[in-house]
Specification:
Blueprint lengths: L2 E6 L8 H12 L1 H17 L3 E2 L22 E7 L6 H4 L7 E7 L5 E7 L4 E4 L10 E4 L3 H6 L4 H17 L5 E5 L5 H7 L2 E5 L3 E8 L4 E4 L12 E4 L2 E5 L1 H7 L9 H21 L6 H14 E4 L5 H6 L8 E5 L17 H11 L3 H7 L7
Family: Belongs to the LytR/CpsA/Psr (LCP) family.
Protein name: Cell envelope-related transcriptional attenuator domain-containing protein
InterPro entries: LytR/CpsA/Psr_CW_biosynth, LytR_CpsA_psr
Length: 370
């Protein structure tokens, strides 16, 4: 049995999990602390968030905005970046390797998670402001094109949101951009999570030495498991923060990126469950540290709604079910040079855009991930 003490040089966190801290953990605080305490902590959170109103202002990308949250269904777009420390200084551009649509049902008791494959081929529209003429390629490159020439995260998010909207027809009431830096401490503040591994899988980033010591293999990313690879064995257990993060990255399997998408969605659910049941919310010190870290790592467009209102106004989602949905039946749909959306996935996007997702899923129960 490998030594599960914290290994050397753990990889940076997966992209999207910060949203759960800010838009899951925060939401659940309301019933615990009361109005005064919640607003105090929200002030600490929102003070560090970078915001813009330019991304969802484009016609068609953002839904109608009245300056307050809609009463009915909502769609949120999460863009998780593959940014690494030092990339900006080197002039390297980030890609949105995680693209997640959160569809909040009108009843606000269900949140559907729809992952858009990073290799899905899409039309990336032209952006005359940066001299970009448009292209058709993998959708995760849209953010990189939009952020070039000094346009930064707002330019990247704007072009990525347009590409997602053009692909799916979905309009958004909010957008969150998340990158790798500084995340690990957030999950450490939660003390890890309980995860279930559904099949044996190996890590392309960690190795185990003869004494059972786990360490990060600098620069390694093999396509076949080395003899000293770290394996995640089938079964349920409490995972340390680094283990849970690595599990969310595993993709070397017959289902490849679809396993990675599923692991990400599993981690979101595990974090939500722990945040609402493990006493984290009754510990002001932990909440304060988590919110400060979350605030510094989040970038948002709340579509004209004040940030505090955007977060605090969704407190009713604390008890909502997070329901993962499969695109392309959980298998790569090769169209040459990337992946295409199957007819069923196209219908899924259309149903989400029309706020008819509940009815659609009644006819397609196989899309739900148990």
């Amino acid at each position: 049995m490998p030594d599960t003490t914290t290994p050397v040089r753990p990889p940076r966190a997966p992209l999207w999990t910060r949203l759960l801290i800010a838009a899951g953990l925060v939401l659940t605080m309301a019933s615990v602390f009361g109005i005064v305490s919640v607003k105090y902590f929200l002030g600490r959170l929102t003070g560090g968030i970078q915001t813009t109103s330019s991304v969802l202002a484009d016609s068609g990308v953002g839904g109608a905005s009245s300056g307050k949250l809609p009463d009915g269904a909502m769609n949120l777009l999460m863009l998780g970046l593959d940014t690494r420390a030092g990339w900006e200084a080197k002039g390297e551009l980030s890609r949105s390797d995680t693209i997640l649509v959160l569809h909040i049902a009108a009843s606000h008791d269900r949140v559907y998670m729809i992952s858009i494959p990073r290799d899905m081929v899409a039309d990336i529209p032209a952006d005359p402001a940066i001299g970009f003429k448009g292209t058709r390629e993998k959708i995760n490159s849209a953010y990189a094109y939009g952020s070039q020439n000094g346009r930064g995260w707002t330019g990247g998010a704007k072009l990525a949101a347009k590409a997602v909207h053009n692909l799916t027809g979905i309009t958004f009431e909010g957008l969150v951009v998340i990158d790798f830096d500084g995340f690990r401490g957030l999950l450490e503040a939660m003390g890890g999570v309980h995860m279930c591994v559904d099949k044996d899988m190996w890590s392309s980033h960690y190795v185990v030495d003869a004494k059972g010591k786990v360490s990060y293999a600098e620069g390694a990313d093999p396509v076949t498991p080395p003899s000293n690879a770290l394996w995640f064995k089938k079964g349920c257990r409490d995972m340390q923060p680094w283990e849970a993060l690595e599990f969310s990255r595993l993709r070397h399997s017959t289902n490849g990126d679809y396993d990675r998408q599923r692991h990400q969605q599993q981690l979101l659910r595990a974090m939500a469950e722990k945040a609402t049941s493990a006493g984290i919310l009754t510990n002001p010190g932990k909440v304060s540290r988590i919110l400060e870290a979350a605030g510094s790592s989040l970038k948002m467009d709340t579509h004209g709604v004040p940030v505090a209102d955007f977060v605090f106004g969704q407190k009713g989602l604390a008890a909502a079910d997070l329901i993962p949905i499969k695109t392309n039946a959980g298998a790569f749909n090769d169209v040459g040079g990337g992946e295409g959306a199957t007819p069923t996935t196209q219908a899924l996007f259309q149903a989400t855009a029309a706020d008819k997702l509940d009815d659609f899923l009644l006819t397609q129960p196989g899309l739900l991930i148990s």
